[in-house]
Amino acid sequence: MKRMIIITLSAGGALLLAPLPAQAAAPKDPVRALKTKLVAGHGVRFTESSILVDGSDKQVLQRRTGTFQFGKKGVAASDITARGLQGMGPERAVTIGKTSYLSGGIWADKLPSGKRWYRTSTQGSGGYYGQVINPVEPGTLAALVKKGKRAGNTLTGTITFKELDKVSPWFAAAIPLRFHDDTKVSYRLTLSGAGLVTRVTTSYAATGVFDISAFDGKTITIDTRFTSWGRRVSIKAPAPATVSTKVDE
Length: 249
Hints:
Blueprint: E1 7-9, E2 15-17, H1 30-37, E3 42-54, E4 57-70, E5 75-83, E6 91-96, E7 99-104, E8 117-120, H2 138-147, E9 149-151, E10 154-160, H3 161-167, H4 169-174, E11 184-191, E12 197-205, E13 219-232, E14 243-244
Helix pairs in contact: 1-2
């Protein structure tokens, strides 16, 4: 339908044009917004809680804090600390490229005397119950946008473990022990006015990672919040003298 412009005459006979109604701004593209932030030496922080839900009963599995450092195409490095790991101390994972350095947690009693870090070529994310969706990965975010439904500043949808595994290098590190590729992850992304992800909440059946009857009917819910988009970040590998490539079995 064509919009009408109302023309009126002023007292002096001059034509006056009534202003057109303001147009609503188009929603920002989250993938495009993310790519503007992928500047080497900059990054984003996050805080997170992972909860096991059984009806009205909720048990905190772990809490994490971390920082991602960007390269031109995505995550170049990360530094993540997980707490609340079944009575163990904090576990920290520093990943640079395809190399990870793990310390504390389950590694505390496995390292040789005088060593604090275990170096591995397997990507680490700290803990075992971390966020399975990483919106800092452009490919992952694109898949979520494609599968999801946008309503204002939120994006909701579902994606399977198998689909995440195809698009997300992060996913394999987030839950290294998974049993059912067809497990469905429900997700909700909250976006800022600039289109950047500020919050990710996900939930999936606990039997996707705990393949035992005791976890039938239970759900793992993870809430991750992102702050300080674009802040300067410098993540470095630990001192070589503190690193070991061997651990006790």
